[in-house]
Structure formats: structure tokens, C-alpha cells
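Notebook entry, structure prediction.
Reason for the run: the old model in the group folder had no record of what sequence produced it. Starting over properly, with the input documented here first.
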Amino acid sequence: MTEQFAALASLAQNPGKTRDDVLAYFYDKWQNNYLVLNKWFSLQAMSDIPGNVENVRKLLNHPAFDLHNPNNVYSLIGGFCRSPVNFHAKDGSGYKFLGDIVLQLDKINPQTASHMVSNFSRWRRYDDNRQKTCKGPAGEDCVY
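New structure, fully documented this time:
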């Protein structure tokens, strides 16, 4: 599995049919192992392919993903926040995505929500444009 996952990690950075096919194959093979699936979610979420926020949104509806499961959340949403390209997208889409998720999570599991909102804590390190687009879950400036 280690070799398979390493190969998958390199393919996950290249958008296209091959990537999609290999991700589907890996899922089919490991779908009954929840720990491996969390790695599978994380790997896709961390990808720096352009516009990956849309792929992550789609994964929120994947049958193996449950927003009520903190490990799923840490893997998918936390993984997305580790993508400097997509979480810190110039258009603010990564910040908006996280803000929307935190609002949902706060109703389900406030502790998990507070863990996720900590991804906004380094907003002062961002350039001026990103500081202006960094908003908390209620639209406030990121001052955490």
C-alpha cells in the first residue's frame, strides 16, 4: 500500500482522466479501510491543481465522507487548508470555502469547527490582497 500511495500522490498533482481513473481505482481497492480513505481524502484535498476547491466541494458529497466524523473533516478540510495554492487563492475562494464549512461544523461539532477556524490564524503573514479577502465565518476580518 505504501508504494501505491506514493504513486497516487504524484498523480494527484496532475489534473485529467488518468488522475481520476487512478483515484477511483485506489478508492475501489481500499474503500473498506477508513484510515486509508482518510489519507485518500487528504491527498486529493492537498493537491495544488488549479481550482481544487471545486473538487473538495464534490468530495463533501462522497458516500465515504461524513461531516459529522471529525477524522473525515480533518482529512478533507484540513488537507485543503494545507494547500498554499488553493486555500490561499488570490480570489479568496479558499477562505470563503473554509468559512462556509466552519459555519456548518459549528452546528454539528463546535470543537471541530474551532480547530478548523485556526487555519485563519496566520492572516497577517499574507500579502495585502489576501488579508483583504480573509474573512471569518461570519464575515469579520481574520483577527483570531
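Summary: The mean pLDDT is 88.
The old model has been moved to the deprecated folder.
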